Amino acid sequence: MPSGALFDLGWIPRRRRPATARSVLAGEAAAEAARKSSQEAPPAEETEAQAEPDFPVVGDTAAAAFFDLDNTVMQGAALFHFGRGLYKRHFFHKRDLARFAWQQIYFRLAGSENPEHMADVRNSALSIVQGHRVAELMSIGEEIYDEYMAERVWPGTRALAQAHLDAGQKVWLVTAAPVETATIIARRLGLTGALGTVAESVGGVYTGKLVGEPLHGPAKAEAVRALASAEGLDLSHCAAYSDSANDIPMLSLVGHPYAINPDSRLRKHAREQGWRLRDYRTGRKAAKIGIPAAAGVGALAGGAAAAVALQRRRR
After folding, report:
1. Chain centroid to CA 135: how far?
2. pTM: predicted TM-score of the whole model, two decimal places
3. pLDDT in tens, 89-114
4. Which one of 147, 151, 233, 253 is most buried, by most CB atoms within 10 A?
């Protein structure tokens, strides 16, 4: 897998960017990692597609689709499920459980993304993998996907992604989850590749640092913008799908934004903007509405929540 310390980002054009420097760096690093990993992806499986009328447009090589992961493609947070697998394999200590549990509770009660608290959560999550080899986590991730994730993919969202593939378009996951985890999921679903949070590695070993910041909010938009530039895509032809108001910057970039299983804030915004909705939680379908939310910090702390849940179940 690519190492954050070794990325060559010279192919990305310079431009005015409203995002923070760390968001830009995170987005560009995610785009570079996605391009490299997609070159090794196997061909997509053939599944029944349920396409929108007249969309996606078959043969439109300037178009692609970008899918958020948590609660859009998969029920729950990928990192929550990944954390369950790591706990089962003794990656966590009891002192880690206590710290992670408190951080997760704080985030849920505060309902905001305080930069200092986000840094604490990020550093705690990174401490879990620091010193481990990338190849080791990739191998474990394959096992965890089969154990906890495969059965949680929304069939409706999978069909939307397949419609883009059948139209000859590339399909990318865009998530705050680690790029290694996201890449495993993308490959298993037959997608092109994944944009995810890039953890720095040197010599194939995690250093415990990130390249930029978690791929969340504005950083996702920067990643999509950078990848579109490198791939020669026209964003007005592209589609994006998400459940979270945090992804409004990414959704606003494309010509075809979709709200999938929307949270209340995104639903309200999508109604105002005339965006389309798909809600697979209840089976409802509507032509113009919005999509739900997943928190970037919640994703980083998801493994802790999983571990706490498992420990409670065993009592």
Report:
1. 20
2. 0.70
3. 888 766 665 655 565 555 445 444 45
4. 233
Instruction: Answer yes or no: is pLDDT of 308 > 60.
Output: no
pLDDT of residue 81: 83
The C-alpha atoms of residue 83 and residue 266 are separated, in whole angstroms, by: 27
What confidence tens digit (pLDDT) does each residue in 167-210 have? 999 999 999 888 999 999 999 999 999 999 999 999 999 998 88
Which of 19, 72, 12, 58 shows the shortest CA–CA distance to 257? 72
Instruction: Determine the pLDDT at residue 201.
Output: 93
Of the candidates 8, 60, 70, 166, the residue annotated as catalytic is: 70
70 catalytic per annotation: yes
CA dihedral of residues 57, 167, 254, 199 (deg, nearest 10) = -170
Catalytic residue among 8, 60, 68, 146: 68
Q: Which of 251, 234, 237 is nearest to 292 (CA)?
A: 251
Distance CA 171, CA 36 (A): 15
Q: Measure the CA–CA gap between 30 and 175, rounded to whole angstroms.
A: 10
99 DSSP 8-state letter: H
Peptide bond preceding 56 in cis form (omega within 30 of 0): yes
Token pair belonging to 174: 């865009």
CA angle 51, 57, 63 (to 5 degrees): 110
Q: How far apart are CA 284 and CA 261, in angstroms?
A: 10
Number of neighbouring beta carbons within 10 Å of residue 78: 31
120 is catalytic: no
Q: What is residue 290's three-state secondary structure?
A: coil
